[in-house]
Amino acid sequence: MYAHIEGRSLFREAGPVTPGRLLETGMDTSPYIELRDVVFSRGDHRIFDGVSLDIPRGKITAIMGPSGTGKTTLLRLIGGQLRPDSGTITVAGEDVPGLKRKALYRLREKMGMLFQSGALFTDISVFENVAFPLRVHTSLPEDMIRDIVLMKLEAVGLRGARDLMPAELSGGMTRRVALARSIALDPELIMYDEPFTGQDPIAMGVLIKLIRDLNSSMGLTSVMVSHDVKESLSICHYACIVADGQIIGEGTPEEIQAHPSEQVQQFLHGHPDGPVPFHYPAVDAGQDWGITGRSR
Amino acid sequence: MEKLAAIGRLGLDIFASLGRSGRFLAGVLGGVSKPSVAFPLLLKQLYSIGVLSLAIIVVSGLFIGMVLGLQGYTILSDYGSEAAIGQMIALTLVRELGPVVTALLFAGRAGSALTAEIGLMKTTEQLSSMEMMGVDPLRRVIAPRLWAGFIAVPILAAVFSVVGIWGGMLVGVEWLGVFEGSFWGNMQSSVSFTKDVLNGVIKSVVFGFVCSWIAVYQGYDCVPTSAGISSATTKTVVYSSLAVLGLDFVLTAVMFGDF
Fold it and tell me: What predicted TM-score, i.e. pTM, was given to this entire model?
């Protein structure tokens, strides 16, 4: 069954996306997102120093790494909210940093993003939050908007919460509503910013199921930024680990688990000391305690 | 030498901030939304910025008019000129107090609320999520608020002046017994539409634009933390008040400075 909103299909063929299926259906197997030699700095601090990465089409890619390594910044670069100092970022064949404002906003209609906080509009109800992108970007009649919103809320299990205000939702429910809103326009790409942070085990299980099911049923390309290793590796097809402005490891979950890099292994197993030291850089301890001459 | 460098840095920061606010304003005014989209958003903001400010404007206008009536009578009666009280109250309100006090009250009541609202939207990533949905927050969030402030302040200033004159009449005529005919007659003969009323309207238009610009810019440019919002809200009230008082002197000198 297909329906269309201004040339965009509302419902896509369901079924798991596998390389074999991609070939059978004749779908494009080129990377959906390509980053080449991306350099990005904030002030004097270089966050990315020549990062190159291919994000495969129709798969779940996990971008992991310690806090503060620029994972969310990477999503903002992909979404065109930040511009790299140098290098190219291509999404769906379009050079994001080179796009004019209008073209960039048109490209973003193909993207959905789940923010860490949910970022729901607090002055309107759950229903109106999910209806927002439909009202802005389409001229659908009100009864069709209602049906689509209820379908999206049903997909995340919150059809019954349509009349609640964002302040009445729990953290997990907020993210599920935000997820419903981000798929309202049936995007090609969805980006998740730390989807599991601060979630109880049930809410986390629900989010894992939703991310997996949405990816397979809608044929989405999913990019998930997270430092929750176990949960991320359990659902992703491809993973990469970012640290020190570089990609220090990438591959399938199995390849990542067996990665020879000590830094990758320290991150995966949460060792408190290793290539990333336990201690923040400081002057010699003897100086601080006045053994070898007192410091400030 | 370090002090000189600090002064230079401060100067650069001020100019950088002015440049950013200018670019921001160009971005807000440059984008035109469809009237069918923009008008309902503008109406909503006119209600929350304008209509909900009416209470404070009416009450303040009434008391300021009453105080003017009382003070004016006390001073003018020493010279036997209490009949000129209507003229004094009207000119004071229409030329100066109406536009200035309205703008100051607007900055405190609506400007600070605008800054806090936009700042909180930034902090909770609502503006970012709008951008990622392909919706420009400058057009959707900022522009209706800027235009609403621009439209609302002159109307509020007119209401302030009218209520103030009525308050002055209550005290002067009803309470202190000034002859009603001379109160209104002197006012009518001495208040010029072009010189007094129109100049007052021009002042309130300028103040409305400046106060709204400062309020929305401070919210949009704030550091997205609770301390950042608090600082931005304070800046809105302080900068708006200083801008209104400074501009009032400049505009008064230009409008009435034919000495």
Answer: 0.81
